[in-house]
Design brief:
By secondary structure, this protein is mostly helical. The protein has 5 helices and no strands. It has a single domain, classed as Flagellar protein FliS (Four Helix Bundle (Hemerythrin (Met), subunit A), Up-down Bundle). Helix 4 (72-95) runs antiparallel to helix 5.
Amino acid sequence: MGNASNEYLRNAILTASPEQLHLMLYDGAIRFTRQGIEGIETKNWEKAFTGFSRAQKILLEMLNSLNYDVDRELCTRMAGLYNYIYRHLVQACSERSVPAAEEALKFLNYQRETWVMLMEKLRQERAGQSDTPGVRTPPAQSPASADSTGEVDTEYSTLCVEG
């Protein structure tokens, strides 16, 4: 069974778009942060360490994949956000702090939600259906994906995953 699920995951990664790969990174970081929290709550320190360490590695990968040639200002803001989340994951692990982990998780969930909305907008634009009624855009305060008018920056999809 393990080999079949590994093969499925391998194929999913090899056939995914850059946007889908980035979503998988968010999903993994969220899953591992939750595992870390569960480890703290059950006093399973190995589980906490493993979960937070894996989430930290994902954040470092996301940080290292920023493409500053596309939009330096946006990448700088995203780097600040990723560093903020990363520092909270380190704090959660070293201090066994559920509040620090929950702060990181809050931002990871928000970024994932924003990313999903961006993927939907890109899908519609690629299909020639931009500005479709009923499509939500993230709030204007989202530093990662919206400009001052609240509109999604569609070039954002190329910032974090090169390829």
